[in-house]
Design brief:
Number of domains of chain B: 2
Largest interface: A-B, 27 and 27 residues
CATH superfamily of chain A: ABC transporter involved in vitamin B12 uptake, BtuC
Distance between the termini of chain B: 32 Å
Largest sheet of chain A: none
CATH architecture of chain A: Orthogonal Bundle
Shape of chain B: globular
Largest sheet of chain B: 6 strands, mixed
Oligomer: heterodimer
CATH topology of chain A: ABC transporter involved in vitamin B12 uptake, BtuC
Radius of gyration of chain A: 19 Å
Shape of chain A: globular
CATH class of chain A: Mainly Alpha
Distance between the termini of chain A: 40 Å
Chain lengths: 270, 271
């Protein structure tokens, strides 16, 4: 047992824990918006497109974290603009972009012989290999995203409930929509290392969906989603050590188990 | 009205600056003319009711007046500092979004000093006879309850102009009469203007100052009293079961074809 506890005093575990928890805290409110606004597939698309950003970053020798962030913001912007086209429905557009950018990213990575990349780390995350600078990025972004979310919280909730009423009351709906999308893009970009391209949306959506069962107001749902996310991170890390399985998927499995348990417990009432 | 010569106060009462005026508003969607040279204005305390068949452009006109949509031609002038209260036709809240009536109404007060606003919210709900709903989930409300909560949201901003898009939709006849009498007393006590879309003319008309009959253009407009001075006419509103458009008796000297275009060039007249 003391061996087990001493795990939590080693650097890489502390880094992993700090990164996972700070992400889980902003993932609560942000994931709630994704659930309310039915944007889960949108988040997926951004995450998939991030692999293309990784590939381009590696080829050009740019800072990988920065190139992921830039590509996520770029695709978020492209999606927002293209989404106004009446000829392509949103889900079709997302389907095209998600998979073409993922495929393109993998092709580019494979073609670049000079680079040896652990693709699995990007697809499923590599929380335990997080460096001090990775952690700094994650904490800086989560503080920034969290701060903006707090500042505009009422506005974001108002435009989500009814955009027209909010606009008549004076909200700048278009700008707020773009801001929210950029916050999601940023968060997805920095959480790449934690759960990977394929699992990021689940960390945003599953805790929020679980928290819905316990909430009567948007604020309760957001805060409880953060708590559930944190519990999933802690137990996911523990389970990963005990069972020697990859951390990212282990965290997602934990979140899913929490969701299932809450669904069963609250099933009669909902 | 914001521009031009400085108007003198001692002009007639009728020249009081309107809350909102629309002049020659035009709107085209995909080559389909939805609005054509529509003009109207609303004074403080005045109730203006917009009637017309489905697809006549009523909602489009209201959205332009609210600033939610840009007109292709014409001008909208809002009085400086005009606060709008808007009650949409309906509200769909995603079942994934937990929302109490209290929280929904508190959104109206965001950015204001009284951000707590619990007191004001209770007062407004009480004035609409639904104080018991304050902790209810928005998704659990009946049609009539939801309409009152939406009206409360619009009122909480203490609007100068209240814009209501079919406020009585999904409300039973008795509820409609009550809702309209509430709106009537709001206009009277708070002195705000009301712009309202309605299908239920038989209930609305008795308290409406101006009726605008819209079918892409303004077919006709006027005070209900000028339409008919017959006392039996008003009692008809009270009975509230007669066919609505038949009540507003007027003759058009032109006809519409099936696209709503005017056949013949004469202006319409009231009887």
């Amino acid at each position: 047992m003391s061996d087990f506890l001493s795990l939590f005093t080693t650097d890489f575990i502390l880094y992993a824990l700090a990164a996972g928890l700070s992400l889980a805290v902003v993932a609560g409110p942000l994931g709630s918006f994704i659930v309310w606004r039915r944007m889960a597939y949108f988040g997926d698309t951004l995450a998939h497109s991030a692999l293309l950003g990784i590939a381009i970053g590696l080829l050009t020798g740019a800072n990988p974290q920065l190139s992921i962030i830039l590509s996520c913001l770029f695709f978020a912007f492209i999606l927002t603009v293209l989404d106004r086209s009446p000829n392509v429905s949103t889900d079709t557009l997302l389907g095209i972009l998600a998979h073409s950018s993922l495929a393109l990213g993998i092709v580019v990575l494979a073609l670049a012989d000079s680079i040896r990349v652990n693709l699995e780390a990007y697809l499923f995350g590599a929380l335990l290999t997080i460096s001090a600078s990775d952690l700094a990025w994650i904490i800086a972004v989560t503080i920034g995203v969290g701060g903006i979310l707090l500042k505009f919280w009422n506005e974001f909730v108002a435009i989500t409930v009814h955009a027209d009423i909010a606009e008549v009351e004076g909200s700048r709906v278009d700008r707020l929509n773009i801001l929210l999308v950029l916050l999601i893009a940023l968060t997805i970009a920095v959480s790449m290392k934690i759960v990977g391209v394929l699992l990021i949306t689940s960390l945003l959506v599953i805790p929020a969906a679980a928290a819905r069962l316990l909430a009567a107001t948007p604020e309760q749902m957001a805060i409880r989603a953060s708590v559930i996310g944190c519990v999933a991170v802690v137990f996911g890390l523990l389970a990963a050590f005990v069972a020697d399985v990859p951390v990212g998927p282990s965290i997602v499995v934990c979140a899913t188990l929490l969701f299932l348990a809450l669904t069963l417990l609250r099933g009669g009432k909902a | 009205m914001a521009s031009g010569a400085v108007s003198t106060v001692e002009e007639t009462i009728g020249s009081q600056q309107p809350l909102l005026s629309a002049v020659d508003i035009g709107k085209v969607f995909d080559d389909r003319v939805v609005l054509e040279r529509v003009s109207f204005s609303i004074q403080p305390g005045q109730i203006v009711t917009l009637i017309g068949p489905n697809g006549a452009g009523k909602t489009t006109l209201v959205r332009i007046a609210l600033g939610l949509l840009d007109a292709d031609s014409g001008t909208i002038t809002r009085r400086e500092g005009l606060r709008l209260g808007y009650m949409p036709q309906s509200l769909h809240v995603e079942p994934t979004l937990p929302l109490t009536v209290q929280r929904f109404l508190a959104l109206a007060l965001r950015g204001t000093k009284e951000s707590a606003g619990g007191h004001e919210i209770e007062e407004t709900l009480t004035s609409l006879h639904v104080p018991h709903l304050v902790h209810a989930q928005l998704n659990s409300l009946s049609g009539g309850e939801l309409q009152r909560v939406l009206l409360a949201r619009a009122l909480l901003r203490k609007p100068h102009l209240l814009v209501l898009d079919e406020p009585a939709q999904g409300v039973d006849i008795a509820g409609q009469a009550e809702l309209y009498s509430i709106i009537d007393s709001i206009a009277e006590t708070q002195g705000c203007g009301v712009l309202m879309i309605s299908h239920d003319l038989h209930l609305v008309m008795s308290s409406t100052d101006e009726v605008i009959c819209l079918n892409h253009h303004v077919c006709c407009h006027g005070k209900p009293e000028t339409v008919s001075n017959d006392p039996a006419y008003l009692s008809l509103f009270g009975a509230g079961v007669t066919d609505s458009l038949a009540v507003y008796t007027h003759h058009h000297t032109h006809e519409h074809d099936i696209h709503g275009n005017v056949i013949g060039e004469d202006e319409c007249t009231h009887q």
